[in-house]
DNA sequence: CGTGAATGTGACTTCATGGTCACGTGTGCA
DNA sequence: TGCACACGTGACCATGAAGTCACATTCACG
């Protein structure tokens, strides 16, 4: 019937939960996890707080869902970067750029990431695990870039922290209602931050020599 | 009691208030402004919560004081940078490096900065004003570096946001009990982040030409 | 000593907010 | 038609934390 154009009951549930998570993420981005109350989230969706509990077991669960949504976006964008980019540096650039744009579009601004310490119990550990796998993936990309000569030699951990810091700090200053467009600002930030990873000509030369000069012209 | 912060008699009040601010800053750095309760702060100092109210009018006031302390450190470190550094880039490097070191030493880790949105009323505006003057000072240094050729041409606002993001993100991952020493990690982060501002040899050359080549050998 | 100001305390109030529950309503299905 | 179930609601409870207050204690000083 209806050629499956009408979402089923359980699909509706999933959609509603997603709407809750999105609304919550937006609010928390602005006011922080503590500052955004469940009443706020409910109001934003035009329902009562009690209704939320049909789709979310508690606030911790909701916050965790927000973080997982954000990290899912990040991973998806890294997929894109790894697919399209040639060098380690390019993959990182593409991945971070689309991450920022998507983040601004979908969740307002990625301020959730700024305060993950509010999670308690299992949720906290699960979230740390998620974040760690993402960071490790980033580090592997840095190492790849160091091998292919697109990234300067340095401690990958530090490099990744530096990049993520530059990116997420956006939450502190970017105003979605301002003049700057998401793509524009994402470009500018990512371009500048990843400049830090670019090897100088001299460094690139020595890297090529060290690699056997097999890739030179 | 009072964690051994009681020399003079008349200055006692000021010192005690300072001790409160420091303790609060440390706790808030770890657990966030909301997560750190006044009871926690009092416990840490070995007094009761009620005693705090002799030196602090309310929690907002306390949070504001923490931010002002942090910004005061930042300004002081920029003074140092401006005094010792020759170029715009050097001033920024020195300023940020000592800021990070001092911050880790004094206030644990500068996580307060991550959540200034919790301030309410006058305190919020005053804090934003403080922060703005600091950021403007940083921007002026970037512009100076662009004039003297030590910093690549780019939007100073973006550059400053990128730097501050890299720096403050430290709060997310640096563990004071870990292996890395404050100076070591401050050096690494600042060195890498400011690399992004360095002009490439070609850019430097064109900058010198544009400036009339008056400073070349 | 004696006195008043300063300081610290425990016990209290107040309030915001997370979380629960019994109930009314609409909807799909036999 | 009527049943069962999902859904949403307003009213409610529990709790943690901010903030207050009367009182005890200590200290400077005449």
Give the C-level CATH assignment of the domain at 64-210 in chain A. Answer: Mainly Alpha
- Quaternary arrangement of the chains shown? homodimer
Percent of residues in β-strands of chain A: under 5%
- The number of helices of chain A is 10
Rg of chain A over CA atoms, rounded to whole Å, is 20 Å
Q: Give the overall silhouette of chain A.
A: elongated
Number of strands of chain A: 0
Residues in helix, % of chain A? over 70%
* Average pLDDT level of chain A: 89
What is the CATH homologous superfamily assignment of the domain at 64-210 in chain A?
A: Tetracycline Repressor, domain 2
The N- and C-terminal alpha carbons of chain A lie at a distance of: 63 Å
Largest sheet of chain A: none
Report on this model:
Chain A is mainly alpha-helical. Chain A has a domain at 64-210: Tetracycline Repressor, domain 2 (Orthogonal Bundle). The first copy, chain A, has helices at 9-35, 38-45, 49-52, 59-84, 88-107, 122-148, 156-168, 170-173, 182-195, 201-210. The longest helix of chain A has 27 residues, at 9-35. The first copy, chain A, binds a DNA duplex (30 and 30 nucleotides) through residues 9, 13, 37-39, 47-51, 53-54, 58-59.
Give the key terms.
0% strand; 10 helices; elongated; homodimer; DNA-binding; Tetracycline Repressor, domain 2
Task: Write a brief structural summary.
The first copy, chain A, has about 220 residues and is mostly helical.
């Amino acid at each position: 019937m209806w050629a499956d154009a009408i979402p089923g009951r359980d699909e509706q549930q999933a959609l509603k939960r997603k709407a809750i998570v999105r609304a919550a993420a937006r609010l928390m981005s602005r006011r922080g996890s503590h500052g955004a109350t469940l009443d706020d989230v409910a109001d934003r969706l035009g329902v009562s707080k009690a209704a939320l509990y049909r789709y979310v077991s508690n606030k911790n669960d909701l916050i965790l869902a927000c973080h997982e949504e954000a990290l899912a976006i990040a991973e998806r964008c890294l997929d894109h970067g790894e697919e399209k980019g040639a060098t380690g540096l390019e993959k990182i650039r593409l991945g971070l750029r689309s991450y920022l744009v998507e983040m601004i579009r979908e969740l307002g601004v990625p301020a959730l990431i700024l305060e993950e310490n509010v999670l308690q119990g299992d949720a906290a550990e699960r979230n740390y695990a998620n974040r760690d796998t993402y960071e490790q993936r980033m580090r592997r990309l840095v190492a790849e870039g160091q091998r292919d000569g697109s990234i300067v030699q340095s401690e990958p951990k530090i490099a990744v922290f530096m990049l993520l810091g530059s990116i997420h700090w956006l939450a502190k200053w970017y105003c979605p209602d301002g003049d700057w467009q998401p793509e524009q600002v994402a470009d500018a930030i990512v371009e500048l931050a990843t400049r830090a990873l670019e090897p100088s000509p001299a460094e690139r030369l020595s890297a090529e020599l060290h690699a056997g000069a097999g890739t030179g012209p």
